[in-house]
């Protein structure tokens, strides 16, 4: 199967973002409380609910596009939807990285880069 690598990367991104989005929905209040503390000394201190909602929307759309891209790759030679999923996943990760850097959570930022590498690989493979 020629598309095994992009399918596996899209699956990784889909699981990552759909689980994260589900967690945000399931425990919205807990996430907001924790993030208010996390960003208390930053310019995002008063923007936590809006920022979290923005990330939630980006994660859900990224995950759904990645799943749709997997389905597309199984059904046709086209990879357009998967490419959109990989690009939006990369953008979402950049937003998350920005937040971690603003919060001066450099270990958290480093963790996001681990996810960013396969996301950019997917963009490359599906372009």
Provide a descriptive summary of the structure in words:
The chain crosses the membrane at residues 47-71, 83-103, 109-126. This is DoxX family protein. Keywords: Membrane, Transmembrane, Transmembrane helix. With 127 residues, the protein is mainly alpha-helical. The protein has one domain (4-126). It is built from five helices and no strands. Helix 1 (4-26) packs antiparallel against helix 3 (48-75). The longest helix has 28 residues, at 48-75. 35% of the residues are buried.
Summed over residues and divided by their number, the pLDDT gives a mean of 96
In terms of structural class, how would the helical and strand content be classed?
Answer: mainly alpha
Shape: elongated
Helix content: over 70%
**Whole-number total of structural domains:** 1
Proportion of residues in extended strands: under 5%
Distance between the termini: 18 Å
Number of strands: 0
Instruction: Indicate the low-confidence ranges by residue numbers.
Output: none
Series of H and E elements: HHHHH
